[in-house]
Amino acid sequence: MKRVLSGMRPTGPLHIGHYLGALSNWIKLQDEYECFYFVADWHALSTMYDESGSLEEYTLEIVKDWLAVGLDPERSTLFLQSAVLEHAELFVLLSMITPLSWLERVPSYKEVRQQMSHKDLSTIGFLGYPLLQTADIIIYRANYVPVGIDQLPHLELSREVVRRFNHMYPSTGGVFPEPMHLLTEAPKVPGTDGRKMSKSYGNAIYLKDSAEEVWEKLRPMVTDPARVRRTDPGDPEKCPVYELHVFFTSESRRQEAAEGCRTAGIGCIDCKKILYEQMEKLLVPLREKRRVFDEKPDLAGEILTEGSARARLECARTMESAREAIQLFRLNAGRAGD
């Protein structure tokens, strides 16, 4: 089977935008590929270096959500980036041959620095995180990486680095294959305030939210501003609630809600109730599965430990080939006196 790799940073709870934009695709990929999915805690440190106290909690929360939505540790290797030190070793080796200008031209470098202008991101870790991503990918000799269109420049950097490495340190067939993209549509999932759903905006519906919490977030959600009164007709295309209907509601029910909006046949609360019922069809089974891991708090950590051990075995084989290609001196593996 061809191999796929992807990861998520543990920067907070996962919300329905994460599910629709990435996790639902990851689940399907398990049927077609050998999948490696990791918690990218080192990547989180590139912007959260002064907020590291929450990383352990968020790491376990992410794994619980992964397991609840259907990622299967029997079919996918789920692991922790910082538990596989070979990632860092390969990152160091790649940093020796990667021109600084290659990293500075990555579009997200300047974009994120502007978005997070309140924080000092003039660090080696932040500048170098696309190269660490390259190490994450190629150390597993991944054939594909599921990405949105905004991540394509990062993957092109990875291919350039692979070509440079294989050219400078030739070996039979090359140490690393060039990773290709599996382009996935990254839908704009609206939050409760109409902006893109994000934990930083405080507008997210989390996968772990209770039914009561979901409704309390949906009930005051912004709608078409033209519907000031119950009797005012509205335009579904201008309503964030209707945007969520597109993801969760069947076409027939969605058309029913749209017609009710245009004719003022139903109120915004009625429309939100339909959406809530449809969302709960997804969220109820997720809560039930997640409850198993909440009641057994060590289970998620054990799965992550087992997956990290499998990942290290794979990385050890790759690094042996990389060291041999570079012709680094190899010490006798035996201990003195053996």
Report on this model:
- With 338 residues, this protein is mainly alpha-helical.
- It has helices at residues 16-29, 41-48, 55-69, 86-95, 100-104, 107-115, 124-127, 129-138, 152-168, 211-218, 240-248, 251-262, 268-295, 297-326, and strands at 3-8, 34-39, 76-80, 144-147, 180-183.
- The chain has a three-stranded parallel β-sheet. A two-stranded parallel ribbon has the order 4-5.
- Strand 4 (144-147), helix 9 and strand 5 (180-183) form a beta-alpha-beta unit.
- Helix 3 (55-69) crosses helix 13, helix 4 crosses helix 8 (129-138) and helix 8 (129-138) packs across helix 9.
- The protein is elongated, with a radius of gyration of 23 Å.
Key features?
two-stranded parallel ribbon; Tyrosyl-Transfer RNA Synthetase; 53% helix; 338 residues; 14 helices; Rossmann fold; single chain; mainly alpha; 3-stranded parallel β-sheet
